[in-house]
Amino acid sequence: MHHSKIILIVLFLLFYFNFNCQKKEKTVMKLGEATQIAIGCEDIHKSFAFYQKLGFEKIAGDTLPYPWMQISDGSILLHLNQDGQKYMGLAYFSKEMDKKVEDLEKMGIKFVLKNKMKDSSFWIFLSPDSLAVNLIHYDPTGMYQPQGKSLLNFPQEDFAKVEKYPNPKCGIFGEFATSVKDLEQALAFWQNLGFEAKTVYREPYPWAILTDGMNILGLHQTKDFDYPAITYFAPDMSQRVQKLKEAGITSFADWQGQGGKEGNFILTTPEGQKIFLFSF
Q1: Which of 121, 188, 198, 253 is most buried as measured by Cβ atoms within 10 A of its Cβ?
Q2: 203-223 residue pLDDT tens
Q3: What is the C-alpha to C-alpha distance for residues 183 and 202, in angstroms, rounded to an integer?
Q4: Which pLDDT score, from 0 to 100, does residue 224 have?
Q5: Is the pLDDT of residue 11 over 50?
């Protein structure tokens, strides 16, 4: 074969494979560079006193534009807002959030609220199962982000060593659980937003654990609950709950869903939100 033809064929093949590789590359959406779980409350001091008994400490706070407080147990960050609303959802921060919002709208995300202001813009969208996600235009450089262990990165050899669990009151954070109507639809939605499925199960009902590197989301196709819930696990959960009761927390109920109620509890917060405290 003529030398020039060989060169042309090689160049064609290089172009072909490079073009196809570029086509297969997909930019992974990232909702922000920092995150927190936002909770609306009626009395921020009452709520903080409650969470203190669960192992949380104050990180930051202010009274403008309304009383708010960031609290953490070292594994998750909660943002309490005394804004007269009742909610619990995810919030993300980015100094380029306006660009992210544009990209999301091109992907088909519909925003239920847009508040574009000079110094503090935010946008809110809902998942197919009505979990609220707040996107905030704010440079999170220097913003506190928990570095503690969760169930995703806790050493397996330490599972039986309850003294090593990050939260001495509640155990180890496992997931921000939410019920879904259709697991496959919910998986596709969250994966499109940069979440990666870590585990997908079909028993005792379809459910999955996903993460975007900041939040751990549990999707549960079940009728056992129909609300979002912060979820902790520990092998000695019954003893932990007893100690919390002795500390003055009384708003517990036994879990009545699949998996049995032995050592599994639902805790109702002063805001009316739910925390799952489960054994394993």
Answers
A1: 121
A2: 999 999 999 999 999 999 999
A3: 10
A4: 95
A5: no
Residue 25: inside a domain: no
Residue-wise pLDDT for 19-64, tens only, equals: 343 434 456 789 999 999 999 999 999 999 999 999 999 999 999 9
Torsion of CA 90, 91, 96, 101, to 10 degrees: 50
CATH code at position 189:
3.10.180.10
Q: How many domains does the chain have?
A: 2
pTM attached to this predicted model: 0.89
Strand ranges (E), 15-98: 34-40, 57-62, 68-72, 77-81, 88-94
Whole-number Å distance between alpha carbons of 254 and 264: 6
Token look-up 């005792």 returns 204
Residue 120, pLDDT score: 78
Let me know whether 62 and 113 are in one domain.
Answer: yes
CA distances from 191 to 97, 159, 185, 219 (A): 19, 29, 10, 12
Please tell me whether residues 169 and 127 are part of one structural domain.
no
Same structural domain for residues 129 and 194? no
Range of the domain at 124: 34-137
Please tell me the distance from the alpha carbon of residue 178 to that of residue 127, in angstroms, as a whole number. Answer: 10
Residues 128 and 136: their CA atoms lie apart, in Å, by: 21
Residues 132 and 166 in one domain: no
Dihedrals φ, ψ of 123, to 5°? -135, 145
Measure the CA–CA gap between 125 and 42, rounded to whole angstroms: 23
